[in-house]
Amino acid sequence: MQARQVRRVGGRAAAMLVALVALGFLPPAASGQTIPTPAASPLDNPLGIPDVGKLAPPATDAEGVTASLRILVLLTVLTLAPSVLIMMTSFTRIVIVLALLRQAIGTQQLPPGQVLIGLALIMTMLVMAPTWNRIKSDAVDPYLDGRLSQAAAMDLGSAPLREFMFDQIETAQNEESVYVFHEYVAGPVSDGDTLVRGDVSLSTLIPAFVLSELKTAFVMGFRFYLPFLVIDMVIASILISMGMMMLPPVLISLPFKLMLFILADGWGMVAGSLLNSFAT
Known about the structure:
Structural class: mainly alpha
């Protein structure tokens, strides 16, 4: 039985080889002669992608080492950029308010999440433009010109961000969040003593700023949410009084909420309120 199966497999393999030779996929070979291995063809590179190894040779002098370190620093900054954007800028407040607004209107998928994120990014660029310009002029340009060391550039670059975060915390009157994290790190503050900006480290300021932004964002979201909640309650009361309890109130209230939002120029009001809520 096993010998018969082996003969069947061998016969099928021979038939496949004959078919491949007949179709031209395999060249015919003489008896006892093996088919030679084809030579390696040149790399197909129609776009002309350059060889990075030739463009960036090994660093053998001080200038080469400096260029390599700059590339390393740039890649590190790009890796940390999303965290910096979320934790140390106005992005958190803007995106939370926009998300709460979409939920208040009742359109779960409109506007799409990509649109809200894009709008939040553009508004963040507008709010943070003066701070980023100061960082560029005070820290980035002198460091690239070789007039500042890396440590000095980091200190000078973090100063505008610290000032921005302190301004937002003080404007929102959320100084207690700074005391919470500072007392956890450095111990309780004596009665009658007040913290100054120089006493607060950056590692303490960042979480305090995030808590302040979360509180401010939810307060603004509640204010935008309240008119739509009133419309939902009115529509639900009317439907119950009419005995239409099986009809979802959301289906009736959604057109009224959209009409109110459009007539009041809601997007313009929300964008203006968000931009004006930041201390400049």
